[in-house]
Amino acid sequence: MMHRRAYATLTLFFLTASSAPAAETPADRKFTETSLGAFPREVYDSAVVSPDGRRIAYIQTAGKQQTVVVDGKKEKTYDRAGGLSFSPNSQWCAYAASAGGKWFIVFNAANNSRELDPHNRVGPPVFAPQGKRFAYTALQADGEHVAVIDVTKPGPVYERIFEGRLVFSRDGQRLAYGARKEGKWLVVIDGQESGPYDFLGSATGIHFSPSGQHTAYAVRSEKDKKWCVVVDGKPQKWYDNVGEFAFSPDGMKFAYAALAEKKWRVVLGTKEHAPYDAIGEGTLQFSPNSAALAYAAQTGKQWVVVAGGEEGRKFDGIGEMRFSPNGRLLAHVARIGNTELVVLNRREGRIFDAVGGGTLVFSGDSQRLGYVARIGRDPHVVIDEKIVGDKRKSPYDMLGYLSFAPDGRRFVCAATAGKSAFTLYNGVEARHRYEAIWSVPDARFVFDGPKQFHYLGIKGGNIYLVEEEIE
């Protein structure tokens, strides 16, 4: 039950590349390095950066055994390890491990690891958004499944727990998941069962409103072969299929994609929008102020952005879409033939060969928009539709995602030239260099103050927490 994606854009990331022409003189910035231990290339694929961008963990394999390394400190060695994750507040790390034919969750707090109860199998640990709670699924010896909540509180026994999905409310006070019992599916919210249902929708998932007050999920009727969204326990209209779902930030509205008579439409509350051939995967979203709903839709071979119920211009493809923090601006990537551009509130920007996927970023005050774009093979930083440095020939091989400073006037990103990686602050290079730069999962820099930011730098087989300061 998945509708089609609009299209994929090119992502520019941090890797070493061929030589490039020199840029202007690098700046000698203040910086400190704190070693987080060895970081061999073979662990890159398993590495996880903490949400605050200050910690790193990875899985190291030696023969038939595996060891998790957190901030350079080796944990106990196991037969297998996986599901490595940090809590949203970055204080804790957890993962699944097996030894002697049994699986369990290992919970690391203050560099003191603790093995939880063993099971036949366990699902990956899921932290609540506030990071103070976590849960996981476990397979019992009799083949039944349970959800283990807050370390030591196993829930009711079920035949199966829906794809191992556990969903916390934003405040971490509520937990929901799907479970099968006597051949039927239930939604379990705070331990209370709703249903039974013939099946639950994987594309729609289970949702809490931002306040945690409202819930939503999709169910299927085998008799009618129809789907509907259930909001606060109340079934909505039945459709041939349903897709992605979204609550507004204020929790007062909801919207989802629905299929009827071979056409997709967005349903806002009970109001159906116009039908289309497809709704762009991952594009359905409310503005931060909850005033507007936007999404990408396909009509024939072209795509259009629908915002506030009104269509924009048709393009050959629609990529990333992002609202400004104040909710008044909507930016999106559009494709025309083999070229791409950024559209801001229907105002079209300059045309490039490609716009970096996921690089659109607004300043915190919503006054500026930046992204990374490519002319030929050369990547450029673009701020408010102006190429930084205004050079058609870029001195860089690759550029990373942008971050605006808290004042909104300046920006930082990572760049590579030859075999060196370094930061660019307002287009000026830092003199200190690394083999690669890593940051938080979205690869953006985290500011600690008006002029301070940090990231992880790799050199000589080691990884360092780098804290940089600009004048």
Question: Your description of this structure?
Answer:
Helix content is 0%, strand content 52%. It has 471 residues and is mainly beta. It is flat. The model is unreliable at 1-22 (pLDDT under 50).
Radius of gyration: 24 Å
How many strand elements? 50
- Mean pLDDT comes to 90
Report the portion of residues in β strands.
over 45%
Distance between the termini: 52 Å
Indicate the structural class. Answer: mainly beta
Number of helices: 0
Characterize the largest beta sheet: strand count, sense, and whether it forms a barrel.
5 strands, antiparallel
Short description:
The protein is mainly beta. Helix content is 0%, strand content 52%. The protein contains no helices and 50 strands.
Structural topology:
Elements: E1 30-38, E2 48-49, E3 56-62, E4 65-70, E5 73-78, E6 80-86, E7 92-99, E8 102-109, E9 112-115, E10 121-122, E11 126-127, E12 134-139, E13 145-149, E14 153-154, E15 160-168, E16 175-181, E17 184-189, E18 192-197, E19 199-200, E20 207-208, E21 215-221, E22 226-231, E23 234-239, E24 241-247, E25 254-260, E26 263-268, E27 271-272, E28 278-279, E29 285-286, E30 293-299, E31 302-307, E32 310-311, E33 317-323, E34 330-336, E35 339-344, E36 347-348, E37 354-355, E38 361-362, E39 369-375, E40 378-383, E41 386-387, E42 398-399, E43 403-404, E44 411-417, E45 420-425, E46 428-429, E47 436-438, E48 446-447, E49 452-459, E50 462-469
Antiparallel strand pairs: 1-50, 2-3, 3-4, 4-5, 6-7, 7-8, 8-9, 10-12, 11-12, 12-13, 13-14, 15-16, 16-17, 17-18, 19-21, 20-21, 21-22, 22-23, 24-25, 25-26, 26-27, 28-30, 29-30, 30-31, 31-32, 33-34, 34-35, 35-36, 37-39, 38-39, 39-40, 40-41, 42-44, 43-44, 44-45, 45-46, 47-49, 48-49, 49-50
